[in-house]
Design goal:
201 residues, Jelly Rolls, six-stranded antiparallel sheet, four-stranded antiparallel sheet, 17 strands, 43% strand, globular
């Protein structure tokens, strides 16, 4: 007997009929996919993240790490050449602030729901089956634009997790940077543009 468990939190429709109870809806469908990612005798759960005031929120599962990727390794065979994650943005939430990566490219494949994508050209609506791509330096932001969860896969090269790729993020709306300080420690900094040698001599 092989036991595989997938855990995913969210709303669903519960129906009782003929002394049996069953569950329906997008949450159940995602949980079924998550279960399929589990290995024998393992539990595979998505992780939730929300900003302090609740504007930004998501649940995600890093599939590449579940498949053995070692994010802190500099060995490409262990690190993998790309990262794959399953992401769910709840109704009314944005994934994260408008930002551009310095070294990371991202390919998105929409599974379900409706989203709006902000980039330098404005807002584009997307839905199930759509795909879109951002190269380094192309600022973008993803918002759930529908009445149900917005779910997609994202495939990224030079993934930031682990801090070993040299990637950084710039946030045009607020003028902040996310950079790696030492090793894998990430810090958020904000300041004015200055000369390269300012404060150095």
């Amino acid at each position: 007997m092989i036991l595989k468990i997938g855990i995913h939190e969210g709303p669903c429709l519960a129906v009782s009929l003929n002394d049996r109870q069953d569950y329906f809806g997008q949450t159940v469908n995602i949980a079924a996919r998550v279960q399929g990612l589990a290995t024998s005798r393992s539990i595979f759960a998505t992780t939730e993240r929300q900003s302090p005031k609740g504007k930004f929120g998501r649940a995600s599962k890093n599939i590449s790490i579940a498949l053995g990727r070692e994010p802190k390794s500099l060995d490409l065979a262990k690190r993998h050449p790309f990262d794959l994650a399953l992401v769910r943005i709840p109704k009314g939430k944005l994934l994260c602030p408008y930002h551009a990566h310095a070294a990371e490219s991202e390919l998105y494949l929409v599974v379900s729901g409706r989203g709006s994508i902000r980039d330098k050209d404005g807002i584009t609506d997307v839905g199930a089956g759509d795909a879109f791509f951002f190269q380094p330096g192309e600022a973008h932001q993803i918002t759930n634009a529908g009445d149900e969860d917005f779910v997609y896969y994202v495939i990224a090269d030079n993934p930031r997790s682990g801090g070993a790729t040299g990637d950084s993020c710039y946030y045009p709306d607020s003028g902040k940077w996310a950079v790696v300080k030492e090793g894998t420690e990430e810090v958020i900094v904000s300041g004015k543009e200055t000369d390269y040698f300012d404060g150095e001599e």
